[in-house]
Amino acid sequence: MLNARRPNPLPARPSRRGLLAGAGALVVAFRLDPKSARAASGPNLADVKAQPNAFVRIGADDTVTVVIKHLDMGQGNTTGLATILADELGADWAKVRTEFAPADATLYNNSLMGPIQGTGGSTAVANSWFQLRKAGAAAREMLMAEAAFRWKVPVSQITVAEGVVRHEPSGRQARFGELAASAASLPVPSEPRLKDPSEWRLIGRMIPRLDSVAKTDGTAIYSLDIRRPNQVTAVVARAPRFGATVKSFDAAAARTVAGVLDVVQVPTGVAVIARDTWSAMKGREALTVAWDDSTAETRSSDAILAEYRERAKGPGLTASERGDPQAALKGAAKVVEAEFTFPYLAHAAMEPLNATIERAADGGYDVYAGFQFQTVEQATMAAILGVTSDRVRLHSNWAGGSFGRRATPTADYLAEAAAVFKASGEKAPVHLVWTREDDMAGGYYRPTVLHKVRAGIDGKGAVVGWDHVMVGKSIMIGSPFEAMIVKNGIDSTTVEGASDTPYALPAYRFGVHNGREGVPVLWWRSVGHTHTAHVMEVMIDELAHAADVDSVAYRLSLLTQAPRLSGVLKLAADKAGWANKPQDQGRGLGVAVHESFGSYVAMVADVTAQDGAIRVNRIVAAVDVGVPVNPDVIRAQVEGAVGFALSAVLRNRITLKDGRVQEHNFDAYEPTRMSEMPRVEVHIVPSQVAPTGIGEPGVPVLGPAIANAVFAATGRRLRSLPLDLSGVKGA
Which pLDDT score is estimated for 712? Predict the structure, then answer.
């Protein structure tokens, strides 16, 4: 059993039999049928199908192990998911442990993604809420039934709390571990009684995270920590331009470097295999590689953006349309026109990409990594290694961040690990390591995007028309997910947050052009909302100013059909003291509100902007995520979103010069410093609606809130990201 405080660096290979019928353990869980997953997000559980599964094990030592089907990249979902099950079960939190699930989509699929196992889109809690509650409730009822049988009393007189089953009238009680083995033989209840919220003792409370101690004392095992017997390390020399291929290479000098064992060509470049990481890196430096750039992207960022501006002159594919905005704009009292640009962005997670792969004694393969799309990753590696998917066993480790980077539709770095291992002759376990420079310059990126908007108001300040066009490369076109996500040439992840705007705009059109450059792009924390929210919220602010109406009041007038958005907007404004704006020169408040991934977030930014510098003093956030499973984790995620996004708002960008990435490390792509981190206040709306996610929704609103605050402080409108600090000089 995995102890969450002292993880085993070499986890045992789980088998379905061991998970389902471990000796002396009660094992229960439920699977949501993908077809009923959406319906299950509401209170009606009639269509949730019970099937044998493996989410909870109760050991003879009273430990309760919750099997986590999602990757924890620092967002705390191991604690959140364990909380849901443990509360329904009535477990003692001090006895709760977690372990990551093996790759098996028949047991551990993400019901909001369909028939695949994966983590993303802030869905971990949302898709597991009723699944884990039912699993915990079923286990509780089985323990109660066993106790009632032993004590010859009605089950209605049995209670469960803090890991103890009690019969209050007789004073008898038993610990979970005393009942688990016998209870495991009982039928699994198909419709166990779920607790009323008034009975919750863990959900909604600030309880300690299960991973805090191990991550503090260094005993938590990340994939970068994995050391298998006789393990070797590989690094890959990849093309400096995207789309280039190996023309020829000379490995003679590399092979003379101490510690270098082999040099092999793989589809992504040339791999140097050595006894350790340093030797592999030095061997790579000694390589001579000639690259074929005939199919490579060779343009600079400015050239790509220039092409975007030309394409934006046309209407593009229609993603959303109502009324006739062109006609409406002709009769508008005032028209605001604006262009917004957004650069490529790296994910820049603290732990660079890496994975370890070895051949097992049974002829299968064991792989150790932070797996985010297990079904895709397992199938991709199996195809490269020439075996069926079940012969590739995935052992999930903690991941030091991702922000979307580990969840590629092509399973890129894991495919590369399998290719290197195969090319090496499979003689020893291979640990593929990407350096920081590899990770930052090797793709994938948040797409670069351009938006052009024309919006008009009448003489009373009401919006009469909004014509909007954007250009940006689709993440999904050309990927295995295209058929599911792209409709009529429109990638929903490109247009989300604008094509479905909640603002009551009577005449509105949103058109999109799909970019065609050769730069690999990928979802970046909050995906399309990273740019659409910024454009919508800055433009709404501009219209409020043009109408001479308070920007909070103006938003509320357009959100009469969006009560939860209005709710967080009012709460954030109230807690920030919006009615009492700062009078200091060069200081202002800005606001933004947005829905993403089913969650509602508003932020008010208190900013000082003077002499070419922007200082964010305070961020006040209000969030509505349904039931707040763990308020402390929610606050931490919003605080983390501010820290993560702030550097992208103020300075970060990935740029190309003649097709080559210019930013290779944190010196040129600087993360947020502790010294510039604002004070962050997070206010959570109480709710009994099924919970949604919070890993991503804190990101989209930060940029527009700060940009709008800069305008309030200086009277100068900064639209594009990162904000051009020269625009606040002399303010």
Answer: 96
Over residues 592-602, the pLDDT tens digits come to: 999 999 999 99
pLDDT at 28: 58
Indicate the residue type of 260. Answer: V
Burial of 465 (0-12, 13-18, 19+ CB in 10 A): buried
Q: Residue holding tokens 């705009």?
A: 505
At residue 524, the pLDDT reads 98
Chain centroid to CA 353 = 16
Residues whose CB is less than 8 angstroms from the CB of residue 570 and which lie 6 or more positions away in sequence, other chains included: 552, 556
For residue 107, what are its two tokens?
């047991």
Beta bridge partners of 158: 167
Buried b (16+ CB within 10 A) or exposed e, 422-454: bbbeeebbbbbbbbeebbbbbbbbbbbbbbbbb
Alpha-carbon distance of 308 to 304, in angstroms, equals: 6
- The answer to whether the CB of 92 falls within 8 A of the CB of 98 is no
Which two structure tokens, joined as six digits, stand for 650?
A: 């103020």
d(CA 296, CA 289): 16
pLDDT of residue 11: 30
Q: What is the pTM of this model?
A: 0.92
Q: Which parts of the chain sit beneath pLDDT 50?
A: 1-24, 29-53
CA–CA separation, 326 and 412 (whole Å): 44
